[in-house]
């Protein structure tokens, strides 16, 4: 088994390594391309929709934009309100992902997705009242062109850009200090002055900022086109400026919307497919590994089968031969061979026990039968009178014979699992008093004191007839092995979910070497088989069978010349069910 496992594990490790290496080589580039494209597509979708929201007051006309983005990226795009009511979608019939991809709000844009957004989160394309009319834009453009010409004359290159509001500006390179000197010479520093439109918007913004600062008991500040407070960079002041800007721009931008980007199948994460060539390569490696696995497994398995065949041949031999097989290894096969040899040895022991049991049964039945036959022959020959004593003697031997037969029948029922159990609720005190009363006469005749002690009044669920038989067998043994003047005590108590019954005596006790055999059939400490001190040797075996049939256990402790204690532990609720009576 170790060899088989080692070979299988080696092949499995090699196959996993080869498959992993091949899969990594063939799919890494595909994954990188796919992930890069997905990130680019998502960023493009987000940027486009933020720009749309910054330039529109609602989402009513956004559907064509969504359709164009879907054609370009292959992704399904859906916009909903923040409570997930649909606004617009680039198709129908696609289930929304569990989580939204982003929140589209130009006044609270994500700087991670839009690198041009400052820390305040306001998209520069959201200009609202700062959008310049055509006249003001043309005027500013004329100034910019004059300044551009002046800079070119001084040997500097300058370009013209236009902000989202329509305000033009110059983009220059080189030393900013020299540029300022040249600009001063050109005397055109009027580019930074706000236009009338911008001035009205700034006045409104400063009013909102002033109100916020006043509520927080802060000094007033002035805010220009850079939207930075002059003379006070306090964080609380900046928060007021940002809040005022959002309040001023809110009527000019679309309301916030949840963005859901998914595949046409409805998954938020796009998948990818391997090419046919890559799939064939992976399948080829898997097939090769499979062939190697089968070949090695067959080779190792064939070698393992050889000792199994020897075991099979030995098992098919007649049972009476009890063959042994050689144990040549210390692996599973060797363990199996050892177990087979142990089974053969146990079968021999069982056969010996069976023969001994037949001998014991014959011995036990021979004595009463011989006595009965002797008395009857004596009566037939006229040597014994057929009086009351004669009949009583024959009846005693017949009862003994009946007792042995009943004990054997009980054990046969136990072996077949056909004990008749009829459990019912029992009061332990009443049960023990009843059993003690039945044996008190025999105890008094033997000069033994029999007492009963029950703690509380425990109840249990058991067969009253079988339980009285069990306790009666223990009491009978205790009285039989207790000398005159001794005492036998029957005790009962509760121990958790169990009921404990103890039969203790002050008799001769049992030797420590004999304790493991007290529940064996036909075993008696009295090797002379004297019927004055020993019965049939089946009583304790029946006790064990009856106790186990109730789901309990029986144990014994003993000290020679001091006494013996037999302990029954029974569950308070029995699992046994009544069975059909044995014919």
Overall description:
With 583 residues, the protein is of the alpha+beta class. It has 3 domains: 1-123 and 253-313, no CATH class; 128-252, no CATH class; 418-571, Heat Shock Protein 90. It contains 12 helices and 13 strands. It has helices at residues 2-55, 63-73, 134-153, 176-186, 196-215, 235-249, 276-316, 332-380, 388-415, 428-445, 464-480, 539-549; strands at residues 76-80, 86-89, 102-104, 158-162, 168-172, 257-262, 424-427, 449-454, 459-462, 487-495, 498-505, 553-559, 563-571. The strands form 4 sheets. Strands 8-10-11-13-12 form a 5-stranded mixed beta sheet. A 4-stranded antiparallel beta sheet has the order 2-1-6-3, covered by helices on one side. A hairpin with a 5-residue loop joins strand 4 (158-162) and strand 5 (168-172). Helix 10 runs parallel beside helix 11. It starts with a helix and ends in a 12-residue tail after the last strand. 21% of the residues are buried. Mean pLDDT is 78; it is low at 528-534 and 575-583.
Distance between the termini: 51 Å
What is the 3D shape?
elongated
Helix fraction, binned, reads 40-55%
Strand fraction equals: 5-15%
* Secondary-structure element series: HHEEEHEEHHHEHHHEHEEHEEHEE
Largest sheet: 5 strands, mixed
Strand order of the largest sheet: 8-10-11-13-12
Low-confidence stretches are: 528-534, 575-583
Count of spatially separate domains: 3
Strand pairing plus helix content: what structural class? alpha+beta
């Amino acid at each position: 088994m170790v060899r088989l496992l080692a070979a299988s594990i080696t092949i499995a490790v090699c196959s996993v390594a080869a498959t992993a290496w091949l899969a990594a080589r063939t799919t890494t580039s595909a994954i990188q391309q796919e992930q890069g494209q997905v990130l680019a597509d998502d960023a493009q979708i987000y940027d486009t929709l933020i720009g749309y929201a910054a330039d529109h007051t609602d989402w009513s006309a956004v559907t064509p934009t969504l359709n164009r983005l879907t054609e370009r990226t292959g992704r399904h795009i859906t916009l909903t309100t923040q409570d997930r009511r649909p606004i617009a979608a680039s198709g129908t019939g696609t289930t929304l992902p569990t989580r939204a991809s982003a929140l589209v709000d130009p006044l609270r844009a994500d700087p991670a997705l839009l690198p041009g957004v400052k820390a305040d989160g306001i998209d520069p394309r959201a200009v609202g009242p700062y959008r310049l009319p055509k006249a003001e834009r043309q005027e500013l453009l004329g100034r910019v062109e004059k300044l551009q010409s002046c800079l070119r004359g001084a040997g500097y290159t300058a370009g013209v850009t236009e902000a989202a509001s329509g305000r033009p500006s110059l983009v220059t390179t080189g030393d900013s200090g020299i540029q300022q000197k040249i600009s001063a010479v050109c005397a055109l520093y009027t580019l930074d002055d706000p236009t009338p439109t911008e001035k009205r918007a700034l006045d409104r913004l400063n009013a909102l900022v002033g109100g916020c600062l006043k509520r927080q008991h802060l000094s007033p500040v002035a805010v220009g086109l850079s939207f930075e407070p002059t003379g006070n960079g306090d964080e609380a002041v900046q928060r007021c400026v940002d809040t005022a800007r959002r309040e001023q721009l809110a009527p000019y931008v679309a309301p916030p919307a949840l963005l859901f980007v998914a595949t046409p199948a409805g998954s938020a994460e796009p998948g990818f497919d391997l090419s046919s060539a890559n799939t064939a390569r992976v399948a080829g490696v898997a097939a090769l590994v499979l062939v190697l696995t089968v070949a090695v497994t067959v080779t190792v398995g064939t070698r393992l089968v050889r000792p199994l065949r020897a075991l099979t041949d030995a098992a098919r031999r007649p049972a009476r031969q009890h063959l042994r097989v050689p144990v040549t290894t210390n692996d599973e096969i060797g363990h199996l061979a050892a177990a087979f040899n142990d089974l053969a040895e146990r079968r021999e022991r069982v056969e010996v026990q069976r023969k001994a049991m037949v001998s014991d049964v014959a011995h036990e039945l021979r004595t009463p039968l011989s006595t009965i036959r002797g008395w009857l022959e004596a009566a037939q020959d006229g040597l014994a009178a057929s009086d009351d004593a004669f009949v009583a003697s024959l009846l005693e031997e017949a009862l003994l014979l009946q007792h042995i037969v009943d004990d054997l029948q009980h054990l046969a029922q136990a072996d077949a699992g056909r004990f008749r159990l009829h459990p019912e609720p029992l009061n332990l005190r009443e049960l023990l008093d009843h059993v003690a009363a039945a044996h008190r006469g025999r105890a008094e005749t033997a000069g033994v004191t029999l007492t009963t002690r029950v703690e509380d009044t425990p109840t249990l669920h058991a067969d009253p007839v079988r339980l009285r038989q069990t306790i009666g067998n223990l009491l009978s043994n205790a009285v039989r092995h207790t000398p005159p003047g001794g005492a036998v005590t029957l005790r009962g108590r509760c121990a958790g979910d169990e009921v404990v019954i103890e039969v203790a005596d002050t008799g001769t006790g049992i030797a420590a070497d004999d304790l493991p055999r007290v529940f064996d059939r036909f075993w008696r400490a009295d090797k002379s088989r004297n019927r004055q001190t020993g019965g049939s040797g089946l009583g304790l075996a029946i006790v064990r069978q009856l106790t186990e049939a109730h789901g309990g256990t029986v144990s014994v402790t003993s000290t020679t010349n001091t006494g013996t204690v037999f302990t029954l532990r029974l569950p308070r609720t029995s699992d046994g069910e009544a069975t059909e009576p044995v014919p």
